[in-house]
Design a protein that fits this description.
alpha/beta; seven-stranded parallel beta sheet; 9 helices; 7 strands; globular
């Protein structure tokens, strides 16, 4: 898909169903129409204890959607560990995709915050082992929950003092081929500026599907791309 076609969709938009967002579902739909989008994925944060998902599905179903705009749904859930576990409740019909998010660093014992990862690295945890752990968790999650979406993938790395460039070709190739094999959408994320062009090239070469997302928490940001356009147009991001 061309850059222009990708930028006509926004596949990660939050509403007031998320604690940290300020715009309603209807405001996001209106903003998507004003931005000339053809696809909008309404997404909100969940945990295993979340109970409002049926209400969210009903509210989306009740929206008035302008002609030419397709509205789809998702929930964003934290990746927990190397078994691919997600912090998500049982989901009703009407949720199209789970967005698998690296909000914390998944380990065999569960998720840990960036500060704890930095401490472990300072205490001797080898960067190569940490990177193996992250990629293992992502691959296992894609295999365990096929047909979903990776949200702002690898955004955790700079927070812990590592970078996507350190992943290397072998890890990226395994990650990209798993995304293709499991029908996992991989978003190019405006807010966090990831994945890198080299990772995007690997995804395209593997035949994985890309989508654009703003990860917006306010309607004014819906469909407004700068970093995503740059990432997609970089020669490293093109097949």
């Amino acid at each position: 898909m061309s850059t222009a076609a990708l930028l006509r969709g926004d596949h990660h938009v939050h509403s007031t169903f998320s604690d940290d967002a300020v715009s309603t579902l209807a405001e996001n739909v209106s903003a998507a129409h004003d931005a000339g989008l053809d696809t909008l994925r309404l997404v909100d944060h969940v945990r295993v204890s979340t109970t409002w998902v049926p209400e969210f599905v009903a509210a989306v179903g009740a929206l008035t959607v302008p002609e030419g705009l397709t509205v789809v749904t998702g929930v964003e859930a934290k990746l927990l560990d190397t078994t691919g576990g997600l912090d998500a409740p049982a989901l009703p019909a009407g949720i199209d995709r789970i967005l698998i998010a690296d909000h914390q660093f998944p380990t065999s014992a569960g998720p840990i915050g960036p500060g704890a990862v930095r401490e472990r690295l300072a205490d001797g945890w080898q960067a190569e082992d940490a990177l193996d752990t992250l990629v293992e968790a992502l691959i296992t999650a894609m295999e365990r929950y096929p047909g979903n979406q990776l949200a702002h993938c690898f955004s955790i790395l700079p927070k812990v003092g590592l970078s996507e460039a350190q992943l290397g070709g072998e890890r990226i190739a395994a990650w990209a081929s798993t995304a293709a094999r499991t029908d996992t959408l991989v978003e190019v994320n405006e807010k966090w500026g990831c994945p890198t062009p080299d990772s995007l090239r690997a995804l395209r070469q593997a035949g994985a599907a890309l989508v654009a997302s703003t990860d917006s928490h306010v309607a004014a940001d819906v469909g407004r791309y700068d970093r995503v356009r740059t990432l997609l147009d970089d020669p490293g991001g093109q097949a």
